[in-house]
Amino acid sequence: MLSPSQDRWLRWLCRVYGLMLWAYPPDFRGDYRREMLVVFRTGARDVMQREGSAALLPFMRQVSWDWLCTTLRERTTMTTSMPALRWVAALPLAILAAVAVMRIDGLIVGFNVVRDYDFQHVAMWMNVGFFLMAAAFVSVGVSVVPGRKDSVARIAVAVVVVLATGFVVVGAIRMVMAPVAWGVCALLGGVLAYLPWRLHARSQVIGN
Amino acid sequence: MGDMLPLTPAVFHILLALSDGERHGYALMQEVAADTGGSLQLGPGTLYGCLKRMLSARLVEESDERPDPELDDERRRYYRITTFGAGVLRAEADRLASAVSAARSKRLFSRKNLALAGTRL
User: Is A28's CB within 8 Å of B48's CB?
Assistant: First the structure.
């Protein structure tokens, strides 16, 4: 039997582990999340009853290491088994979002750092960093999109559309052609990138 | 069947634990830890990752019978080994036995482990 403080600890740890489980791919989570929580709770309770609360530290270390290794493995398995059409659809989307972030970053860094302080190398590396972050975010986001719920794709498209619209509006207000053209291209590209993806998701739903 | 070999230690021990009856996830973890003297401790992620792959390879299957909710947590699923899984387990055990036999013929065991291997095989 656990003391009230141990019980509180257990509930808190279960909540933390429940959050950690969100790192697994959606399909895997859908199949095993509840069971994994039951296993975790039973294991943590056993450890606490047998060896006291201090033993939770090595237990959590083991669980965290297991979590890190298996999330990476499951994500890799899911990404490598992703249909080629989704990759083809994902690529322009990733490029568009990365370019959009670069443009925004270019506005901020370009005006504030390069012109005022002449730290060109800082600006360059910041650009590279932002580009890589954006590309990584969108690529990872794309790879985690489950077959039926393409919410990450929608978010990525929404980001592209909002940024592109912003450029069109700013360009129109300043009467400058380049941002307007870029914004229109990005809008069209975003829609084109999203369509095959959407159609593929729909065909999967029908197929199932 | 041969293309499934060699099995990973986790998969081999999960099949071994299921060879004498169906079990739920936590019971599997405990049995594997007990069978290996604590040297192989499966975390929840490893266990269910393996079970997922084993289900798709038809080495194990989910048990249709659900435990009585009053006696057990109804969220627990029970797994059992399939006939195919039992065949793969036997093939892997044979493979390991030949490896042990080869190691024994080259006198790689210490005296203590030789006695242990002799009694187990």
Answer: yes
Q: Determine contact: A39 vs chain B, CB below 8 A.
A: yes
Chain A contact for B56, CB < 8 A? no
Residues of B in contact with A74 (CB under 8 A): 45, 49
pTM: 0.62
Give the count of beta carbons closer than 10 Å to the beta carbon of residue A54.
9
- Candidates B46, B52, B73; nearest CB to A66: B46
For chain B, what are the domain ranges?
2-120
Rounded to a whole number, what is the distance in Å from the CA of A137 to chain B's nearest CA? 24
pLDDT in tens, A46-95: 999 988 888 889 999 999 999 988 988 887 776 666 566 566 656 666 66
CATH class of the domain comprising B2-120: mainly alpha
